[in-house]
Amino acid sequence: EAGVVQSPRYKIIEKKQPVAFWCNPISGHNTLYWYRQNLGQGPELLIRYENEEAVDDSQLPKDRFSAERLKGVDSTLKIQPAELGDSAVYLCASRLTGVADTQYFGPGTRLTVL
Amino acid sequence: DQQVKQNSPSLSVQEGRISILNCDYTNSMFDYFLWYKKYPAEGPTFLISISSIKDKNEDGRFTVFLNKSAKHLSLHIVPSQPGDSAVYFCAYRGSTLGRLYFGRGTQLTVWP
């Protein structure tokens, strides 16, 4: 069974540029999460989707961050414009709702903003 | 404000010995705790969990202990193997279903 797929794995951009990350969850997993992990920290939730609905986006900086999961499968997280402090690893995770509390994480996208 | 604290950023253990990773929490309402392991350039992977109604859960070489009075969680790995070298995160499941709150992690190094 394929795991959570994320792309790109690495991205380097200059500040004020836009950037987008893509995530394809495990097939059949209707819950999808985006986390941000800063250096030396644990992952922090940005947004959670149940199918195509964003049910927890309280930690998403909405002035510059946006996310979508139009068909309830894959998802895109966008930053526009990027700031130096956005440099981090962006992790996507998925879970089969109601089955278990285990979240399955993708390998992440390492973003460097110069 | 970190509600889950892993105060040791690193731990070094000889192969075959016991590794003990510690985690403290502040909120007595937390009801479900998890440990995740992370290798470089990979996402965290689930290792073991424990409900607050238990004080111990065991899975092979891994045992998690929960001391509710001390608000303390620990992960024991016996015997430790070089392949266990990774960053270990403790986490709790918040009131919102599915949201996890992670500690900062402890880098475990198991040397031959």
Describe this structure in words.
The complex is a heterodimer of chains A (114) and B (112). Chain A is 0% helix and 48% strand. Chain A is mainly beta. In chain A, strands 2, 4, 5, 6, 9, 10 and 11 form a seven-stranded mixed sheet that branches. Chain A has a four-stranded antiparallel sheet with strand order 1-3-8-7, with no helix packed on it. By secondary structure, chain B is mostly beta strands. Chain B is 0% helix and 54% strand. Chain B has strands at residues 4-5, 10-14, 19-25, 32-38, 45-51, 56-59, 62-67, 72-77, 86-93, 100-102, 106-111. Chain B is globular, with a radius of gyration of 13 Å. The termini of chain B are far apart. The chains are: A mainly beta (114), B mainly beta (112).
Helices and strands in order:
The complex is a heterodimer of chains A (114) and B (112).
Chain A: E1 5-7, E2 10-13, E3 19-24, E4 31-37, E5 44-50, E6 53-56, E7 65-68, E8 75-79, E9 88-95, E10 104-105, E11 109-113
Parallel strand pairs in A: 2-11
Antiparallel strand pairs in A: 1-3, 3-8, 4-5, 4-9, 5-6, 7-8, 9-10, 9-11
Chain B: E1 4-5, E2 10-14, E3 19-25, E4 32-38, E5 45-51, E6 56-59, E7 62-67, E8 72-77, E9 86-93, E10 100-102, E11 106-111
Parallel strand pairs in B: 2-11
Antiparallel strand pairs in B: 1-3, 3-8, 4-5, 4-9, 6-7, 7-8, 9-10, 9-11
List keywords for this structure.
heterodimer; A: 114 residues; mainly beta; Immunoglobulin-like; 4-stranded antiparallel β-sheet; 11 strands; 0% helix; B: 112 residues; 6-stranded mixed β-sheet; 5-stranded antiparallel β-sheet; globular
